[in-house]
Amino acid sequence: MGPYFKYKVNLFWSAHQAHHSSEEYNLTTALRQSSFQRFGSAWFYLPLALFMPPTHYLVHKEFNLLYQFWIHTECIGTLGPLEYVLNTPSHHRVHHGRNRYCIDKNYAGVLIIWDRMFGTFEKERDTKIHYGLVHNLKSFNPVWVQVHHYVYLVKKLFSAKSFSECVHILFKGPGWSPGKPRLGEPHEIPEIPHDTTKYNPPVPLWVTVYHFYNFAVLLVASYLLGLIKSELPYVVALCAVLYFLYSLTCIGLIHDHHPLGPFCEIMKLLILISCDAYFGFYLSESLLIQGMRVFAMFSLIVWLRVLFKQVKGKRD
Q: pLDDT tens digits for 261-281?
């Protein structure tokens, strides 16, 4: 029941589409989750509280998630007879594909027998699978990836001509529109040309290295925050999380060549330098900390120069 609503009801699809938005298919795709998914799926698990002990449910859930993590890979072909029973990397590649034959197939978490029983099973074919959404986002902005389908829904609701149409927009399939079946017309799903290229705007090598460093720092910082969050005031922990999210958004904007990218990066560095100036006495005066401060100041100068060139180019 849960998977059915998650993929075939527009409102719940909004809370899951972030997981399917990647054009790559590897273990990082398994970690690409929506911030809103738990609010859309929790209702389907609540009835379990009537007859299943919480400890049993939590253990089952964690094993289920762990199993599904490993099937997000292209490194494994088929698993022989296990393909008839288990959800495997081959089956799940079809589930993540946006080829016409892949849409709404192989919902299974662990056991593929349910798809075989209910007619939603599809075997992987020899043709290349293209991953992502039917209409890909063409954006690395993590906030936009999370909310874009909600924005789409709101626009459709404002254009609706009746209350009943609003209800249909929310609770029918993502492909529905007035006059069409509940899940839309399958033949309207666009065929993918053979020369399709993944969204990957070119950026200078120094930007790639710079963002790799920033992402590594954010990864370590978020891990450390998880260790000490109980010792921090709630407001401080919340500000740290918002700063991490803003930093990731800056990375996305710059890689998308968004005109606000350099400006947002400068603001991020100014916030970092200001916080260091105010709270810096709490930090150790180690060589690593000093090096990071120098790097932040140097980065600010570089991005100010990039912004200046951008503004000058527009004037010319």
A: 999 999 999 998 888 777 665
| Cα distance between residue 152 and residue 157, in whole Å | 9
Q: Rg (Cα) of the chain, in Å, rounded?
A: 23
Quickly tell me which residue has 């969204």 as its tokens.
Answer: 199
- pLDDT tens for each residue of 89-129: 999 999 999 998 998 899 988 999 999 998 999 999 988 89
pLDDT, tens digit (0-9, with 9 covering 90-100), for 193-224: 776 788 999 999 999 999 999 999 999 989 98
CB atoms within 10 A of CB 136: 16
Q: Which residues contact 149 (CB under 8 A, 6 or more apart)?
A: 13, 14, 17, 174
Exposure class string for 24-52: b at 16+ Cβ within 10 A, else e: ebeeebbeeebebbeebbeeeeeeeeeee
The residues pairing with 86 across neighbouring beta strands, listed in sequence order, are: 111
Q: What dihedral angle (degrees, nearest 10) is formed by the CA atoms of 248, 249, 253, 259?
A: -130
Report yes or no: 250 and 243 within 8 Å, Cβ to Cβ: no
Distance from C-alpha of 118 to C-alpha of 241, rounded to nearest angstrom: 42
